[in-house]
Structures are given as structure tokens and as C-alpha cells.
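Good morning,

Both structures are done.
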Amino acid sequence: MRLDFYGLAEPPFSITPDPRFVYLSERHRDALAHLHYGITEGGGGGFVQLTGEVGTGKTTLCRLLLEQLPDSVRVALLLNPLLSPVELLETIAEELRLDITGLRGNAKGLYDALNRYLLDAYAQGLRVVVIIDEAQNLSLAALEQVRLLTNLETATQKLLQVVLLGQPELRELLARPELRQLAQRITARYHLGPLADEEVEAYLRHRIAVAGAARFPFTRLAVKRLHQHSGGVPRLLNVLAERALLAGYARDENPVGERLVDLAAREVLVPPLARLPRPPLAAWTAAALLLGIGLFALWPEPDPPPAPVLAEPFSVSLPPPFLDGERLATRLAALTPGLDAAGNELLKLWAVRADEAGPTDLADCPPLLAPGLFCQSGRASLDALAAARRPALVRLTPAATGTTGARWAVLLGVDDLRVRLWLEGIVVDLARLDFLRHFDGRTIALWRGPAFISSLPRAGESGPAVDWLAARLAAEVGETPPVGPQVFDTEQQRRLRAMQTAQGLRVDGVPGPASLRLLGAENPGGPQLRRHLE
């Protein structure tokens, strides 16, 4: 529905490195040219170095480079550099599809196998390239192992080309004296900076056009604000623009103005800590001296020691534990199948009494659990759940072999990097990618509306719920709300079907939870998803 609102065929500001959305600014073209030169003509081997601040597009350029390499190039792409030297050799061998059965943990055996592969590739006229992303995280031992690999050569040519992608810390790392041998083998270097002021609008228009929209959804002042808040960093531009579009959809504003961009920045960006002016050292010294003299002169005679008083207990709020992919899979396999526990937790968040609804009712998810309390089930993406801003039950599938039955959790929070879940008595954080590996799209959500909607209106019925529905449907088409008691007749059903068609809902003429929610029946109170996870 949000995409239709802006005439988009797909989300334009995803932070995944999709080469289709690449906008090649002058800096990006220069960086890509350096990578091409280093791989195809860079002295027949050695190292190519590309650095840049977080979010400037290094990984995206790498993906674009992979699409443009000729068929005569064989590539080993390493996305996780936190490896020991032996694990590094194993990963390179696996990426090149070498059979390393019996060689795991054997550094010499792996080195020899790679040497044989490189000699065979050279005989066939092939070039072999190793690309290491986030290379600033490589250990000194792993970097030395990579350097030793580039020693593999014939009498006339190096057999291996290495591309190092990393943050500015990579330059500092390679400047260390113990790595001078590696630094001398770098044949091409480039540092990728953020987009200039005049490039930001071109970048945004490019992504909007690729996503299928014919109309640019930002005002000129909004573009200026996006540049100011992001500093020209493409990833921040994507996040801010996506949030601003979401705010525009929620408020029915198209194009999006600078006010919504500022609102998006307050939600997404961490505000800088305010710094107070620091007094000079002499002032501190003088103040301390005067204070000491005054205390000494006014110090009272000591009183008898008071009776000991027990300190009041206090608590410290700690962030939830973080589960990596392996521990998450283990935890899910240990959960009790079914949604009873998670369902009860969601009902508690909504302060639902036991006599209002029970686990059985929630499992069936009737449209109306109680007067004004709605249950909505179906399939939804994580982005849609984040946009709804309500806790919800999410169905997860364990990856462990032999486990059966779906596991349910309560979604408590989501931001650009993490997801927060309630898992059978504990609250945990995990990476969005790990969550998506187990989330099958099935959700159950609750929300409250007007208490006078004690049942869903049916054909021929009247009452407060029908009066409210008639007024909202009239507002949808820009008409004056009708006066007096109304009947849910064929005309009202026709208008409801038209709204359902326009919003991409199931067209049945029944005012179910999804339709009522879009018509504005949801009350603003109640539990909210946490949007900033720390």
C-alpha cells in the first residue's frame, strides 16, 4: 500500500547492496576504475585497497564489480574476516570450490592445494582474485597469511590478486611497520568519500526511477535536509529517505517535505552528546583550595556515630542478551511448540483480563475478541510490522533437524539492525538477518478500537458502529458524513469494497480488522514497538 501511494513497484531505499540501484557518482566511478585496473592490469598480482567511511558504498561497488568481471576471472569473496590463518585458507579454498576433504586444519596441505589450483588456472588463462570485505578486522596473522599467498607465482607473473575493502582503519593498519612488506605490494589505492551536495538529489532520483516511480516524492528543501542529516553517506540517505516516505504515507503527504525528514532524522540518528565548557585548570585548583579552607574552618565537632542503616536496594537496567544465529537456533529448538505462552504474554501487554480472551481464542484469532478489542492474523513482512508499531506474535521455524511444530515469539522491538523478541520467559536481541532466516511471515496482532464496536457490522444492521463506519467511508471519497442513523446497506458495502480494492485488502465487503484499522478505528494508546534497541 505504501508503494502504491508513491507509484513505486519496489522499495527504493533498501540498504542491501543491489547493483541495480547503484548510482555511480564521480567518486564511485573512480573507485570502480581503480578496482578494475587492479584486477585486470595491476601488475599481474598483488593487492588492491579500497577504503571508505561506513555506508559509503564499498560493498555495493564490490557487487557491481563482480557482475562486470569477465568469465576468465575466478573470485573468492570473503565477507567474514574474523578468521584464523588456517580458517582463512579453508574459506578461500571453499569459495574456489576446491575439494579439501582431509585437509581441514592442515595449513601446509591447504597451501599446497591452493598452489596447484592457481597453477592449473594460470595454464588455462584464468585469473584468480580474492576479495576480502571489512578487511580492517583481519588479524595480523591472517594478513601475513594473505601476503604469503601472493608469493605464489611463475617466473613471469603472480598467480593471485587480492582486493581489500575496509573502513579508514584499514589504512592505519597497513601503515604499521610489521606490515610494510604487504603495503609495498599494493598496486592501487582509493578512498571513497560521501556524496557531494549536488549529487544527493541525483542519487535519490536514480533510486526512485529504478523502483518504478514517475514522480519524485521529495521537495527541494527535503532533499537539502536529507543531505544535511546524512552528510552524503548513501546508507544513511537510504535509511532517512525510507523513514521519511513511511511518515509521508502515514500522514497522507506526497511529496514529502523537510518537516518529515527532520522527524525521520530524530527517529533514526543518535543525537550527539552535549559538551559543557571545561574550566581552566587554574580555576579548578583555586576553587578546590578555597573549598578546603572553608570546610576546615566550619567543620563541626564529631557526633557519636549513628546506628547503621541498611542501604535501599537498587536495580540497574541492562540490555537484553544478544543471540547470534547458532544460539538462536538452539533456543528455538528448545521452545515449546504452539502459541500458548507467547499468546498469554501478548495479552498481558494489552492488559487483557483472563475473562476477556484466553489462549484458545487467540489461537483462533476471531476478528473481535471483546468489545473494542480486535485480533488480526495473516502474513506480513518485518517492515510492515515495524510500520504498524505494535507488538505482535510472530511464527518462527527451528532449523534444527528433527524438531517439529512452529514456535511463536512476541515481537517487542525492531530497528535497522536488530530485532527484540520475547521467547518463553526471556527477552533477547538478535540480528535482523538471523530473525528473517526463521520468520515464516505468519503473524497475529491485537489492537483496540472504539468500545461501541461490540460486533462487526452485518448487512442490514444499524447502530453506533454502522454510523461510524458510514462516516468514515464517506470521508474516504471526500463526501460530507451522513447525518442521522445509518444502515449497513448495499451502498455502504460497495464503498467498503472500493476502499478494500484501493488498499490491496481482501475484497469481501466485510468490515474486518484490517479494513477498520485503515479507516482509523485504532486507538493511539496501548503498547508500542521499541524503535531504538541498545
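Second structure follows.
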Amino acid sequence: MSDIPIADHALLSDRHSAALVTRDGSIDWLCFPRFDSESVFASILDDDAGHWSIRPTAPSTSTRSYVEGSMVLQTTFHTDEGTLELLDALELGDSTDPHSLGENAPHALLRGVHCTAGRVTIEMICRPRPEYGLVVPILAEIESGVIATGGSGRLTLSLPDAATIIDGEVRMQLTLDAGQHQYFALQRTPLGEPLPGARTQDEIAAGLATTTASWQEWSEIHQSYDGPWRELVHHSGRVLQALSYQPTGAIVAAATTSLPEEIGGERNWDYRYAWVRDASFTMKALWVAACPDEAHEFFAFMTAAAAHSQPDRHLQIMFGVGGEHDLSERLLPQLSGWRGSAPVRVGNGAWDQPQLDVYGELLDAAFRLREQLGDIEPATRTFLVALADAAAAQWEQPDNGIWEVRGEPRHFLYSKLMCWVALDRAIALADQLHATDRVAEWSATAARIRAAILEEGWNEEAGAFTQSFDSADLDASSLMIPIVGFLPASDPRVLATADAIIERLTDDRGLVFRYQTHTGVDGLDGNEGTFLLCTFWLARVLASGGRVDEARDVFERAVSHISDVGLLAEEIDSETGEQLGNFPQAFSHVGLVNAAWAIDQAERGHPADGDH
């Protein structure tokens, strides 16, 4: 089983799929041709599930960073005899239009080594194991490479020299002197399509250069944030771009499946899908750290994927990156899991849960894009009006809530809050939706929801807004009350809720839990780490409530756990400070961007939230 820390991986992306690279030069995760496709390498989940390593044969230390303005990774190995630079990228299509970055992605992983000093001998081991380790492909030599056949596609491995094939893996050793370069590539071809020959050294070098330039061009044109933590915000914007599926505009919640929320626990989920919930959070982050075009693409994907004409059906909460609805969950018993954290899952059983908050999140996303949307097309207007009507009709029902609990449905405060948001935003958009005749009814229902939240959501015993109408338990999602504009951040009840969370829902590191798992609300055994998004929410609320110094402290505590290449998982282990959960997590980077912006706005005297 893999024991490498989650944070010791770096992300590669071609905006179709993703790979993870360890600090010692091993590709331990790669899915082709989409984020949610079966893996080619998955040793992050099981040692026998495939990897591709390039590293010095001699003992070495390494440092790494992304090439400035890009998602191209440079790892530098230092040995007693010399220094080696390893450059890694998933190849982007050759495009001069940043809006179509990755449009023609060839589904190729490119790797280049450069000896910058002395002499270094490297060893390359490529051990493909398609379909989550089930397939041991047939390997056959071709000119300047190897073909791997087995599973739903074939792989062409391009090499600079002859290699040895043994025990289902390709091995090679090379010695480089100062100034010498060598290049490698792995390209996937679907069955039934012509198989390409191996790439030349010059072709691979050109692919790396073009990919670097494409990322840098996008960053230069689209990233203009100039507030505090500028580099972290810009890098998070690139991470969100890297987690977006170029053909549709979908943004996956994370690049991986089943990295656990507790070591050895069962809280292991597949996050390689696009959540409706992410829409409004992500829209704001894209406006700050990327550009409105990406926000518009994500919204267009969500409305197209979610559209349906069944009035008695809940809005689905997540979709495949191509808009697929059925994401049925299954187990992969052949994989032992990261540090033995089984089961390993693909698909996500929460896909058909009733979660009422998604109405508000999608309508809030539309509201954020109101100027760009302009004259909304009739089908989209009809769909958005139907969402508001559904929120009005269903808000009194119990549901599974924002955290997708697998216990009994409850009357979660956050779900009621977002039903109020759905109506509030629909009222504000009524002219664009051609729905002014609905405003009176929507307003009356919104008033009833508001009264219920203020009366039943506030708990005197807890001295805070709580998790659900029938509980005194705290939940970090109540921090969204001022963020969505339900109450100002300066309201005494909001500040009291923030203080209660600081006192009773944070760990010794000052990071915030989503909720207390021991209450059994989620129907699962075990515990989990603190949740980075919730910690960033706390920073936002404190900043908007005038407690800017405290907000900065909370923000700094959260980002102190960021990896050496600027990546965040979902959670932090309270005991060890280690990153936990799927990686990298879009929600965490969205939270970072939005919290940095809120603090910047507060310091400028412009409250960031509740100003819709």
C-alpha cells in the first residue's frame, strides 16, 4: 500500500485528465482520457496498480516547483555526482487562443530530463496497469518506444534509447553529462483508432515548451488580482483551471478518488465529478482568480447538465464531466487504498440524494453572472424559474444536506438558508427571467423561510445558529448566513455563532471541523480531519464582521498547511497536521481565493459579503 503523504504529490493537467507526481519523480496517478476515466497508474491507492518513475540511481534530495505561471512541474534532484532537472506536463493542444486552452489535448504525458551539473545516471521504470490495476498489458517494442495493449485503449511509450521489458514493466538506465537532455512521452489511443508511432525527442521537447507557453499566456491574460496573498490566489486560479474539463466547462471537485478523510477509515469518496453546489462558490473564485469566461462556461455546463422537465424530481446534485447523470457507486476490491484506507470507490452514491441547497447555489450562480447572461434564452429562463418554484415548494422537507450525510434526512439549517437564497436571487432576476408575476408569491415564501430560520435555526442553548432545526449541535455551514447576505456579518447572532465555532468546533491548530462526527448525524463510523473550506469561511465572516486581524490569523493558519507546490487537499489531520482527503481539492482553493478577497475588501473598507 502507498505510504507517501498526500501532500507530497503535485498535479498535472491537460484540462481533460489529471496526473499526480511524487517528489521523487513517480507518476502515481493518471487517468486517461478524462478525469473520471479508469486509471493507467494508481499506485497512490495500491502498490500493484501501476506507476511511472524517473529518478537518479544514486541517493538524492529533491526540490520542486511549478514553472512560473504554469502547471508544468520542475523537480530538481541533487546527488553527490551531479544535478538533474525533471520536467513533467500533461500536454495541452497547440492553441494560440487562451479560451480554448487544451481543446486539442492529445492525451499525452510528457517528461524531460536535463543534467545541469556533473554527471547523473537515471533509472526509468514504466509499469502501466490500466483499469485500476486489473489489467497487465502486453508490452511490445517498436522503433524508439514500446506499445502497451490491454483494456480500453493502447499506450505508446516514446523513449530516447532501447529499453528492457520484464515482468510487465519497461526499464531503462541512462547516464547524462552536464548540458545533456533526454525526453519521454506516454500517449493514449482509443481502440479502433490508428496507433501513432513513437515521438521524436524534438517533438516531445516542443510539446513541453508549447504547454508551458500556453499556461503562461492564460495566466498573463486572465489573472489580475493584486491584493494580499497574490501568488497563492493566482496559483489557486490555475489549479481551478487545471481541474476544469475543457470540452464542457465542468470543474471536478478533485482529481482523485478514495483518498481518505481518516487514515484507515471508510470516509473514502470519488470526487472526480462536478457538483452543482460548487457553482456559486466557484463563480466568485473564478471572477477573482481567473476570469468571467471560465465562470460562464461552468454555469452553462451546470444549467445544461441539470436541465429536466420532471416537476416532481429533485435537482440532481452532481454530474459527470460530460453531463452524465447516473454516477452509481461501486467498490474496487483489488485496491488496498492509501495507507490501507479501504474501501476504494468509483462513482458516488450521493448523486441521487435530495439536497435542497442546490437550488440556491445554482440561482446564486446565475445572479453572479447576471450582467454577462443579459437576455437569458427561453429554455434557461424556464429552468431557473422552475428551480425557484421547487425551492418554494420543497423547503419544508428534510434532506441530506450540504455534507451529503448517509444518515437519516433532517431539517438542516443550511438547506433552508439556500432555499431562501434561491427565492431571493430569483426575485432579483425576475425581469431577466420574465417572471415578475412570480415575485409576490416568491417574496411571501422567502419571508416564511426567513422567519423559520431566525426562530428555529437559532438555538439559545448553543448560543448560535446550529446544524438543524431539531438540534443544538454546531455546523460550520451556518457561517454562510452572512456570506449569502441573509444577515450582516456584524449582526450579534452571526458573531456569536462565529465565536461558538471558534470555541467548540475548532481543533488545537485553530482549524474548523464541519461538524462533530460523534453525534452520528452522517451515519458513518469514525472521524475526519478539519475542513479547510470551513476554516476559510470563518476567515471571511470575521473579515466582513470587522475582525480583520483575527481573519488574517485564521487564513494564515489554514495556508500554513499548503504543500511545497501550493496545493491543498480537503482536510487536515488534527493530530499530525497532515493533509487528508482527495487532492487537490477545488473547494479548498475556492475557499482560499474567496477568503483572501474578503480580507482585502475589508481592509479597503468594502465589505465583501452580503452586498448582493
